[in-house]
Design brief:
homodimer; 452 residues; alpha/beta; Rossmann fold; seven-stranded mixed β-sheet; globular
């Protein structure tokens, strides 16, 4: 019988990340200093990020950036990850489409986030940094960074959005088991946290607030750097191992994707699966469609506007050229916590503006229906975030059926949902609902932001 | 740098299971009918189990039993699993030992249980059975069978030990997401359940009671069979894919294990990793040590007696020749729920009696200390069950250090602990304790049982 899983060997783990900025027809605009309005350079980020991450952030010239041996060695714990032909799902949909997924859920923390966590922790260690900070929403990024920090002997403090801290105690425990300090955000440990707690005593937190706290702690602690799990160019860069492996594996399968899909929060897994394929669109060799799958409750690429905006709520970060719903936008409390972020990274925003990628927004109930069908046909319970990609793949497979075309669809399964079962419980019980964002809300939250 | 992970290709998934009974110097004694005291034959089990499982249960002649194509096809979802050289753990222990683990946690349900769940569901489907039943403690087996049942289009009812049903809601949700019906045991849906509920209204359940309920439901439902996730010979048989793959992978690593370790509940994962290696002890070619790692609170192989005993509390099952603590033994509520079973399978019991394998019992706190060290040095958070194997590997690695010997240790990582984080929370908070079993308790629970 024909194989449905395409496996690489350790030697096939990429030796370099693909830097899409080097080949983009239009480069993304640089970040701006909120104080002066002037474009920033790599050195301007040194106080906040590691030097290597800062340089990567601004590197628009090198097409390939070498993956350090120490990082590749850690990748070997779970990489290369499998590419799977989803024959069970195809059968359930009775579609002529060929559906493939890259299975990033096999990492020890259950998601793709480890690809960048390891790189960022390594650069911190190499630079002699002793402490790092970050924020986490649902906890996928925090769990990944906790494992990486422990491996490189770094102390890590994670600000976890308060509502998740209480609702997702397992992810908190995972971070603590790896040895990280986890603080519910907003907290009294920072000025940003104190301000919001005293003004709104019952505030349950947001990613924007948690970023403010983590940035403040890093800036006020000796030998401490801040790390981020999405949005930024260097994070997207690290995630390209996903697409580079998938490219080889699609070759093993003897096919090339007509459509590539990733769920979309700040852009890390979407970029990871897409960028290595999009380069063949740049060259004119291919005309693959790339679809970012957003939640209907937080649709920055489908409903937001391209503006210079802050990455955090308190306004500590540089101004980033991004499709945004406004840094004070408060997304509904959907279970795909990793997608509850107001903005898209600069590179993806530029590609969107240039018509190189598409975006769709999916209601929460459709994502859980897709997730359940996937679990029952492919055996893997997906993360609520990844379920947005699955739902989009199903939409496209159904279209292929209507059109009677044998389309090749590839999506990234960014993580499993085994730590999100409370969400499935609520879905089964009929307690979940859809959320919409009104045009008025977008306008109100983005008014006055500087155009890109 | 030398590789630390040894990967096979799909073509290396074994084509046959290894049937240790065919080569054992002393065969295990057959099960007895509780009614007549007479030895049972395969046909006697047909009302309860599928015919193929029943035949495998009594097959002491065929060394290799072919794995059906449909089962191998499903194995391909996650098999072959990696073998990993635990260099991080070795370094943390500063030991000259070479520690390897077979990583069965990469299955979509997070444990080795799927190896037999798929086979049993397939045989049911092939025989035209429409409904199956089972019991589950912590939920690893129930989750695996739920996935397998859905794949083969079978209806599944799972009796889940009541205390776990409430304490481990995520595993319940996983089963429901795959489409299984989950009933907290004891329940009012069976005579056995009603009896115990009316006599002890607050009884929180046990595996023995849940087995009684699942057996009763199967026996009283048309076209319905019962399935079990451990203890029985055919279950151990299906798990030998673990050791057969590991054997090839140790060859890739250029080593052969001096010691093979598996945690021990009823025997499924211990048998799976051990049997393919123990055959080289039978032939005199090797003298590997095999260690079953039990919880100190449920130590049937280290502290129990070899007797004919029931597999369940109500006494519905045949009498099995087993090392047992008595079928009414009530193990302490440790977090390794999968190890809370009173008896050992007939084959392992015979091997233990013949001095072919060893057993150790490990206190709960030692298992969590080992698990935390493993998580921080190897990056994978282990299941509380598997942590018994890790603790034993650490003991042996420390001995190797004392002796200054480069021993080769192999253990089976039967599952991950991502759905057991509440247990880690309690460990971190200092709320866990050790439990001991007194000699008096063992004697009181096993008095009067027929000697083997």
């Amino acid at each position: 019988m024909e194989s449905k899983k395409f496996l690489l060997q350790e030697k096939d783990i990429p030796e370099a990340w693909y830097n899409v900025m080097a080949e983009m027809p239009n480069k993304p605009k640089p970040m701006l200093s909120p104080a002066t309005g002037e474009p920033l350079k790599a050195e301007d980020l040194f106080p906040l990020f590691t030097e290597e991450a800062s340089r990567q952030e601004f590197n628009t010239t090198d097409k390939w950036i070498e993956i350090p041996d120490e990082v590749r060695e850690m990748y070997r714990i779970w990489r290369p990850t499998p590419l799977v032909r989803a024959r069970g799902l195809e059968k359930a949909l009775d579609t002529p489409a060929h559906i493939y997924f890259k299975n990033e859920s096999v990492s020890p923390v259950g998601s793709h986030k480890l690809n960048s966590a390891i790189a960022q922790a390594y650069y911190a260690k190499k630079q002699g940094v002793t402490n790092i900070t970050t924020e986490t929403g649902a906890g996928q990024w925090g769990a990944a960074l906790s494992m990486a920090a422990k491996h490189f002997g770094l102390e890590l403090a994670v600000y976890m959005v308060k509502v998740s801290y209480h609702q997702k105690p397992y992810r908190r425990s995972i971070m603590q088991t790896y040895g990280a300090e986890v603080i519910a955000s907003p907290s009294m440990s920072t000025k940003a946290g104190k301000k919001i707690i005293t003004e709104h005593p019952n505030y349950q937190g947001s990613l924007g607030t948690a970023i403010s706290e983590a940035v403040e702690l890093a800036m006020s602690t000796p030998n401490c750097k801040y790390t981020l799990g999405s949005v930024l160019n260097h994070v997207a860069l690290h995630q390209t191992v996903i697409g580079l492996e998938a490219e080889k594996q699609m070759e093993m399968a003897g096919e090339y994707p007509d459509i590539v899909i990733g769920c979309f929060g700040g852009g890390s897994n979407f970029s990871g699966i897409s960028f290595p394929f999009i380069r063949h669109n740049f060259s004119g060799e291919r005309s693959t469609r790339f679809i970012a799958a957003e939640p209907a409750s937080c649709p920055k690429l489908t409903r937001g506007v391209l503006r210079y905006d802050f990455g955090d709520e308190a306004g500590y970060t540089p101004l980033i050229p991004m499709y945004t719903l406004g840094h004070n936008f408060s997304p509904a409390n959907i279970h795909a916590g990793g997608l509850r972020y107001h903005g898209a990274g600069a590179v993806v925003s530029q590609l969107r503006n240039d018509g190189m990628i598409e975006a769709v927004d999916i209601p929460q109930l459709e994502t859980f229906a897709a997730a359940t069908l996937f679990a029952r046909s492919e055996g893997i319970i997906p993360a609520p975030e990844s379920s947005h990609a699955i739902a989009t793949a199903i939409r496209e497979a159904n279209k292929a059926k209507e059109e009677g075309r044998e389309k090749v669809i590839l999506f990234n399964l960014s993580g499993h949902g085994l730590i999100d079962m409370a969400a499935y419980d609520q879905y089964i019980a009929g307690d979940l609902m859809n959320y919409e964002v009104s045009d008025e809300e977008v306008t109100a939250n983005t008014v006055g932001l500087k155009e890109v």
